[in-house]
Amino acid sequence: MKFNIAVIPGDGIGPEVVEQAKKALDAVAEAYDHIFLYKEAQLGASAMSIDGNPLPKKTIEICKNADAILFGAVGNAKYDNDPSAKVRPEQGLLKLRQELDLFCKIKPVKAYDNLIYNSPLKREVIKGTDFIIFRELTGGIYFGEKKISDDEKSAYDASVYTVDEISRVTHLAFKAAKNRKKKVTLVDKANVLETSRLWRRTVIEIAKEYSDVEVEFMFVDNAAMKLILDPKQFDVILTENLFGDIISDEASVISGSIGLLASSSIGKNNALFEPIHGSYPLAKGKNIANPLASILSAAMLLEHLGLEEEADAIERAVEKSIALGITTKDIKRKTQKSTTTSKVGDFIADYITNQDDSN
Ligand code: IPM
């Protein structure tokens, strides 16, 4: 089959890791007789360096017309350290989410048996962890009214949610739970925030439609602690935009490296796939960044296109590379030598091309 894929390498290590994900997709295309047509688009600081705009119109157009979007990373230290910058690279991604109405970010979190040694958490605490975060992505404090006073002595960011915004992501979370361990944990701050109380009321109503799914409520401060103390208790975590951003980085500690976690951001008509790590400017161009999260994002992309077998082939190749220790230095064992970003990508692509079903 033939698919159009928009590719946005973005900033920092984005281009390097996306290149490895494309190698994996090309290997899949060859092994399973598909055609992936890539269209490259700009976003973030790299787009700003061309004409100052972090999200060129052309990028929106390419993304809208694609079957799926593969994204690298966004961000540049130059802007992080300048609070007065009016235009920021991240605005490109936020605006793209809005333009395409990508209202839900899904992040699976797993403890890989072969990588448990790399997590600072105890083996017995994390072994067997397998949950998935459903983060609302186009509402809340990220997109509410923002203002700084004329004298720059006060500022606010409003957090606003509507029942409709809460409902659509909640349905996705419950549907996913039905096919998993049948438990949804709503993470909120309902003891303080009005928006969280609206989330609770809405989720309680919707839960009635999914009688086989257990629902529990947890304050975000408590959830932050439980994620580290007992992550195995979670199945599907449902939460608002800001809390979801924070707890998913925290959860990455469980998997042993943030360089391993992939995500999908989905809307009604479009879907974007990206690693959860950032642009890691210190590693840019050094061929040391871990490409596995980007490669696993490509696997999620294939699954989204209905190519489950092909997605499995990528996942198997990733597991093999970890098992054989063909990894970048962030996840290498003390006794192993690390390898480069591009060599990990080559191994994965070769493995996909050469493996047969008996592997
Ligand atoms: C993420 C990132 C983004 C966010 C940034 C880059 C705007 O941290 O996708 O999780 O905060 O949503």
From TrEMBL:
Coiled coil: none
Main location as per UniProt: cytoplasm
Binding site for substrate: 97, 135, 221
Family annotation (Pfam families): Iso_dh (PF00180)
Biological or metabolic pathway of the protein: Amino-acid biosynthesis; L-leucine biosynthesis; L-leucine from 3-methyl-2-oxobutanoate: step 3/4
Keyword terms, alphabetized: Amino-acid biosynthesis, Branched-chain amino acid biosynthesis, Cytoplasm, Leucine biosynthesis, Magnesium, Manganese, Metal-binding, NAD, Oxidoreductase
Required cofactor names: Mg(2+); Mn(2+)
GO biological process: L-leucine biosynthetic process
Residue ranges occupied by any Isopropylmalate dehydrogenase-like domain in the UniProt entry: 4-348
Localisation per UniProt entry: Cytoplasm
Binding site for Mg(2+): 221, 245, 249
Any one Gene Ontology molecular-function term assigned to this protein's record: NAD binding
Keyword DNA-binding: no
Annotated site (Important for catalysis): 142, 189
EC code: 1.1.1.85
Top class in the EC scheme: oxidoreductase
This protein's GO CC annotations: cytosol
Reactions catalysed according to its record: (2R,3S)-3-isopropylmalate + NAD(+) = 4-methyl-2-oxopentanoate + CO2 + NADH
Record's keyword annotation contains Cytoplasm: yes
Quaternary structure and partners: Homodimer.
Family (UniProt): Belongs to the isocitrate and isopropylmalate dehydrogenases family. LeuB type 1 subfamily.
NCBIfam families: leuB
Function of the protein: Catalyzes the oxidation of 3-carboxy-2-hydroxy-4-methylpentanoate (3-isopropylmalate) to 3-carboxy-4-methyl-2-oxopentanoate. The product decarboxylates to 4-methyl-2 oxopentanoate.
This protein's name: 3-isopropylmalate dehydrogenase
Organism for this UniProt entry: Polaribacter porphyrae
Lineage of producing organism: Bacteria, Pseudomonadati, Bacteroidota, Flavobacteriia, Flavobacteriales
